[in-house]
Every structure is written in C-alpha cells, then in structure tokens.
Design a protein that fits this description.
Layout: E1 3-6, H1 16-21, E2 29-34, H2 46-55, E3 60-65, H3 69-78, E4 81-87, H4 94-103, E5 107-112, E6 130-134, H5 150-162, E7 168-172, H6 180-186, E8 190-193, H7 195-198, H8 203-217
Active site: 32 (proton acceptor), 172 (proton donor)
Catalytic activity: D-ribulose 5-phosphate = D-xylulose 5-phosphate
Function: Catalyzes the reversible epimerization of D-ribulose 5-phosphate to D-xylulose 5-phosphate.
Amino acid sequence: MALINPSILSADFSRLAEEARAVEGADWLHVDVMDNHFVPNLTLGVPVVESLSRATDTPLDLHLMIEDPDRWAPQYIEAGAGSVTFHAEAAAAPVRLAREIRAKGARASMALKPATPIEPYEDLLPELDMVLIMTVEPGFGGQAFLDIMLPKIRRTRELISRHGLQMWLQVDGGVSASTIERCAEAGADVFVAGSAVYGADDPAKAVRELREQAAAATPAGWGCTH
C-alpha cells in the first residue's frame, strides 16, 4: 500500500481550507512548518494548523523544519497533528521527543537532510513510526528530485527490514509522476507531493494517479501495513 500526502506548501495560502478539501481523497495532508532559522524560509505556525484541522477530515502530517522541536512539537499535536516529524539535526533529545509525541497520541517521525546518513540513527528506529528521507534540501517547494538519495532510501528500507519493524518510509522533495516509481522501487511507501498535486488541473485525480503508480512499483512485501 502506498500513501500520498499532498503538501500545502504548494497550495494557495489565501484559501487553505478550500485547498485542503480539494485533496480529501489523500491519505494525509502534509504541512511544512518553517521558522526561518533551521531553514531559510518562514511558513506557518500553531494557529494555522489549528484552523486546518477544523477545515478538513484528512489527518495532518506535520513536518517541523524548525529549531528546538523538543519544545514545539507537543503544541502541534494539541493543535491537531496526527503525525509529527522532527529533524534529527535539530532535536536535542530525539528518543525522549519521539516518546513524548507517541505518548500524546500522534505518530512520531524523524527526518534526515540529504547529507545526513541514516546509519547513526539505526538504534533509534524502534522509537519511531516513520522516517522521512529528504530528496531535496529542505526549505522551499518546487525543487528538482535528487537521484543520489535513492541508495539512502534503499539502505533505510534494509535497516527497517533487518529489525523487523512495521514503520513507514517517507520521501519528500521533487516527487512527481516521473520520480515516484523510482522512490517506491527503492523502498519508500509514503510520498509527499506538492507541485505534482497542486499544480495539476485536478489535484484529487493527481493523488489517485500517483498512488496507483507507486503501488504498482512497490516490491512485494513492502508498503504501509498500519
């Protein structure tokens, strides 16, 4: 099973509620929170997440591209996030943070920038529900997919399988009809798509087509199971 999470970073911010409803067939709605410190861009915060959670029935997949996620992550869960991703490069105590996120009822996820290897975090994997491999440098939408991340996706899937974990492997950055199959073949099963969805004439149809492409390319025995 492949999950498609449209990114509202590519949506029209002047009508976010309408844009969220346009992709209600999606599995999750991906929300990028940027603080202009961890990444050189500023997007939205807790009040907007609260409003989004009231505007759509699609669960919210929060990606915190911020400093001090240990402090802020719990507030986003209270605002309505069903999944919270923090960056390994920013978290002071990632195990404690992951456990706190889970204790508050959300899925705990850790993201890695392109230059950050997965191997040093192998022992943390049982504490997580998902790992996010960035396939662009975080901070801006519409970037080109980094093919050099495919081996890292494969290595991450191998570590997940080696430990017998039922966790998701998400990719974010440059995911489109021309790249999603390669990501799925490498082991990803959750796909963040921004421009490929919100740049389409029919965003809901784009979600369905991307899901079908990814599912067809997913090797037997892989894919989301919970």
